[in-house]
Specification:
There is one protein chain. This protein has about 150 residues and is an alpha+beta fold. It has helices spanning about 5-15, 15-20, 60-70, 110-115, 120-125, 125-149; strands at about 35-40, 45-50, 85-90, 105-110. The protein is globular and about 35 Å long. The mean pLDDT is about 85.
Length: about 150
């Protein structure tokens, strides 16, 4: 592919946030979250619909909460069933930078696991969960690269 063709494809991918703004995890409830639109042309904050949930669209954190409330879920790190009382949204890779609130960086976790994890990277806190999250993220990146040619 010529350089200008690659640049055009890359620019289209950037301009089409639905390509990038999708959960990387394919399990429930993540697969019920669908990109709706950008909040505004200035903020470029992605908003999401949640299948089966009334209202919306919501920002990433609220869409994940709504997906758990609507479809149920277990903690990403342990088998604890999540409820309104023990649900937290964990930042897999910390809360710094623009990507902190990206849907790919958020998982549903129980309060005890989120507290134990603290600021640790996911692979230091729970290697198997880290492996699962990294594999899902890698598959998403591979798919986007494949589409670029």
């Amino acid at each position: 592919m010529k350089a200008e063709g690659f640049q055009k494809e890359a620019q289209e991918a950037i301009e089409r946030p639905e390509v990038a703004a999708q959960p990387c995890l394919g399990m429930m409830p993540y697969r019920t979250i669908v990109f709706a639109r950008l909040h505004s042309s200035e903020s470029k904050t992605p908003l999401y619909w949640v299948a089966g949930a009334a209202g919306g669209p919501w920002a990433a954190r609220n869409s994940l909460k709504k997906a758990v409330e609507t479809h149920g879920a277990k903690c990403f790190y342990c088998p604890t069933k999540l409820s309104k009382d023990n649900l937290t949204i964990d930042h897999v890779e910390g809360q710094n930078g623009d990507a902190a609130e990206a849907i790919q960086n958020l998982v549903a976790a129980c309060k005890p696991c989120n507290a134990k994890k603290g600021h640790q990277p996911i692979d230091a806190f729970h290697p198997e969960a880290g492996r699962e999250w990294l594999r899902a993220l890698h598959a998403q990146v591979e798919e986007r690269l494949r589409k670029l040619g």
